[in-house]
Amino acid sequence: MPRILMTGASGGIGTSLRKLLPALYPDLVLSDIRKPADLAQSEKFKAADLADLAQVEAICEGIDGILHFGGYSVEGPWDEILQSNIIGCYNLFEAARRKGVKRVVFASSNHAVGFYPRDHRIGTDVTTRPDSRYGVSKAFGEATGALYADKHGIKVTCIRIGNFGDKPLDHRRLSIWLKPEDLVQLCRIGLEHPDIHFEIFYGASHNERSWWDNHRAYDLGYRPTGRAEDFREHAFAEQKKLKPDPVGDFYQGGTFCSMEFSGDKSRIIDWNKRS
Ligand code: 15L
User: Fold this and answer.
1) Which of 164, 167, 257 to mutate to test the pocket of ligand 1 (most atoms within 8 A of CB)?
2) Residue 238 is part of a domain; what is its CATH number?
3) Catalytic residue (one of 90, 134, 202, 251)
4) Considering the entire predicted model, what is its pTM?
5) How many domains would you assign to the chain?
6) What is the separation of C-alpha 255 from the centre of its chain, rounded to a whole number of angstroms?
7) How far apart are the CA of 215 and the centre of ligand 1, in A?
8) How far apart, in whole angstroms, are the C-alpha atoms of residue 70 and residue 53?
9) Element housing 203 (H / E)
10) Which residues line ligand 1 (CB under 6 A)?
11) Which of 35, 121, 176, 188 has the smallest set of CB atoms within 10 Å of its CB?
12) Would you state the pLDDT for residue 269?
C-alpha cells in the first residue's frame, strides 16, 4: 500500500480531497502549515512550513508519492508567492529527491497560461503565458518538476487546474470547471500510471466550451464525469451579476489578467461590440 503525502491539507482543494482520497489511499499523510480545524482522529497530520527545507524533508520521510497542493492559491504580494510557491515548491521537489520519493503530482494552474486569448485552443506544449505572479510561480513549479523528472527520475505530473468546485461559477468557468472526483482521477493517474515520466494535464472536466486540448490525460485513461453544460443556466445567471471586464473577458485567465493591467488594450477584441 503506497504511503501518500498531501500538502495543502487545510486549503480549499485539500479539504475536499481529504474526504475523497482515503478510499483509494488509506495510508494518507496530511500536511499544511496549520492543522485542519476539523481533523478527524483517523487522519494523520504533520505540520510543515514549505519555506523551511528541513521541515519539508521531515514530512517526506517514508513517502512513496506526493500530492502537492500546498502554497498560495491566488494572486498575492511577491514575498508571499516567493516564500510559499517558489522556495516552497523547490523545497518540495528537493526534499522528495533526498528522501527517495518516487512520484510527485504538482498542482499547477490555468494561470500559468492565462494570457492566451479565449478564442485560442491550446495544448499542454505551449509556451507558458502567466497572468500574475501566482501564474509565474506555477510556471516555475512546472519547470522545476521537469528538471527533477529528467535529471533525477522522479515521475512528475503537473495538473493545470481550472476551477475546482461543485459547479461552474460563471461563464468563464463553464470552460474550465473541474469536478472534485475528476481531480481525484487525474491524481490517481499521476500516482499510479506506469507510463508517467513528466506530464502536464489540464485539470478540467468534460467541458464542451473548453479552450484546452487535454488528449494526453485521456490517452492515459482519464474519463471525466463532470459536464459543465449541465450547470449552464446557473453559470449564466451568475455571470449576469458581474460587471463587464474587457481584459478579463478576452483572456483565459479572467480577472487575474485584468488586475493590475497596464498593458496594450489594442490587442483586445471586444466581442460584444462586433458587428
Ligand atoms: C486558481 O488557480 C485559483 O487557485 C482559484 O482560486 C481560482 O481563481 C481558479 O484558479 C480560477 O481560475 O477560477
Assistant:
1) 164
2) 3.40.50.720
3) 134
4) 0.97
5) 1
6) 17
7) 22
8) 14
9) strand 198-203
10) 73-74, 109-111, 161, 163
11) 121
12) 81
